[in-house]
Design a protein that fits this description.
heterodimer, A: 295 residues, alpha+beta, Uridine Diphospho-n-acetylenolpyruvylglucosamine Reductase, domain 2, Uridine Diphospho-n-acetylenolpyruvylglucosamine Reductase, domain 3, Enolase-like, domain 1, 3 domains, five-stranded antiparallel beta sheet, four-stranded antiparallel beta sheet, 14 strands, 38% helix, B: 167 residues, 6 helices
């Protein structure tokens, strides 16, 4: 239960960190908050030759609103983002999801970028960033590139990041109009990784004009449920029409069951987990609609 | 690069951590956890090592005022930082209000989880000076008590809150 030996570096700048990754030819791991990587080391499930600790790199922890998008530095602590006034106002969905990440002691160290780069199939942030159509910015030897969340997560603990790249920023595009959203998850014990989770983002003012709906749990990566999105975003339900919304929620639940069943689910996914994911999708849609109609 | 590590892959550093107001310096392996540093090098054995992979919460300490799990932090990462362990909360003659409330409400049985519970509660009361039962349970949900004495722990934290506020 002690970590294996490794060589440890504390670069002060991003370019120094990138140089270290390039020189270590693939045997290095980037250490951000360490709340997933260090348990893996202690359990001897990971044996990196080199650890490149980003905790002393300047300029990777920030939350900025430039109007067109929110920009969150990869090393921003989850706890800091959870308490951010800017995010509470501009992206309450993210705050709602962050409050369900592990426990306070985990969020005090865990980072927004670390969770995304680790890409646990049921981590909250990959699901939410997929629902928000976020962009992830990777820095590498050839400069920066921007990767859509939908292209970033490739499989369990597998992302589009190259071994020589570091995730430096997440960009969440601003909605053209009002946006109402919900994130729900179910785990056996409070703070555990969820069995399944769902996020729903609705856009529109007087009537709902668009939706993004994502489920995670039964598949190896968070998946958009386009049939549910078409149903909820295309129904044109009015903000004040409670009866139509209740019907829509029921219909969304049925559509979600079929949509989840059609996902490329992994071998360990149980029927219970698929059923749960569909129920959570229904709840997320219901809660987002309710928040919209209350507003 | 690999040759240096073939026989003895140990990478060592000197770290200086302020623990409970006292500066503690030691030369350690970079892979030494903060929990082991606090127990073995700094002598604060109130840091309890349970699961050693960040699940049980027994090794919780405050680093720069925030509760963290010292078994999944390396000692080198605490270099230059301030750490508070249970020994820094109070002593036998002058217990911290939380410790006093734990005694009065029978909130410890075997005592193994107690230091972590206390430090998680310190972090909670800083953000939330008058917590509801739900808030206490949520804040302590990352700390496991194998004696299952949760009800009294929650009572003790709520009872201590006014005294922590006024203290």
């Amino acid at each position: 239960m002690k970590p294996p030996p490794f060589r440890y570096h504390t670069p002060r700048s991003l370019s120094e960190a990138l140089d270290l990754l390039r020189e270590s030819s693939g045997d290095a791991r980037v250490l951000a908050g360490g709340q997933s990587l260090v348990p893996l080391l202690n359990l001897r499930l990971a044996y990196p030759e080199v650890l490149v600790d980003l905790n002393q790199v300047q300029g990777l922890s920030y939350i900025r609103d430039d109007g067109a998008r929110l920009r969150i530095g990869a090393m921003t602590r989850q706890r800091e983002a959870e308490f951010s006034v800017v995010l509470a106002e501009r992206c309450p969905l993210l705050v709602e999801a962050l409050a369900q990440v592990g426990h306070p002691a985990i969020r005090n160290r865990g980072t927004v970028g670390g969770s995304l780069a680790h890409a646990d199939p049921v981590a909250e942030l990959p699901c939410v960033m997929t629902a928000l159509n976020a962009e992830l910015v990777a820095a590498g030897p050839e400069g920066e590139r921007v990767i859509a969340a939908s292209d970033f997560f490739l499989g369990p603990y597998e992302t589009a990041l190259d071994a020589r790249e570091i995730l430096v920023e997440v960009r969440i595009p601003s909605a053209p109009g009002p946006r109402h959203a919900s994130f729900v998850e179910f785990s056996r014990r409070h703070g555990d990784f969820a069995l399944a989770e769902a996020a729903a983002v609705l856009e529109g003012d007087g009537s709902c004009t668009g939706a993004r709906v994502v489920a995670a749990g039964p598949a190896w990566i968070p998946c958009r449920l386009e049939a549910v999105e078409r149903l909820v975003g295309g129904a044109g339900v009015a903000r004040t029409d409670g009866a139509a919304q209740r019907d829509l929620v029921e219909e969304a639940g049925r559509t979600a069951e079929a949509a989840v069943a059609a996902l490329p689910t992994h071998a360990d996914a149980t029927p219970y987990q698929r059923r749960l994911a569909a129920v959570l999708v229904k709840r997320a849609v219901a809660q987002a609609l309710e928040r919209w109609s209350r507003n | 690069m690999e040759s240096e590590l073939t026989d003895d892959r140990t990478d060592r550093r000197t770290v200086a951590v302020t623990v409970n107001g006292r500066r503690c310096t030691a030369e350690v392996d970079v892979r030494k956890t903060l929990a082991d540093f606090l127990r073995e090098d700094a002598g604060f054995t109130g840091v309890h090592v349970g699961c050693e992979h960040g699940v049980c919460g027994a090794c919780s300490v405050l680093m720069d005022g925030q509760v963290v799990r010292s078994c999944i932090l390396f000692a080198v990462q605490a270099d230059g930082h301030e750490v508070v362990t249970v020994e820094g909360l109070g002593d036998e003659d002058a217990l911290n209000p939380l410790q006093q409330a734990f005694v009065e409400h029978h909130a410890l049985q075997c005592g193994f989880c107690t230091p972590g519970m206390l430090l998680a509660a310190v972090d909670l009361l800083k953000h939330c000076p008058d917590p509801t039962e739900t808030q206490v349970r949520e804040a302590l949900s990352g700390n496991l008590c194998m004696c299952t004495g949760y009800a009294n722990i929650v009572r003790a934290v709520r009872a201590a809150a006014p005294n922590v506020r006024s203290g």
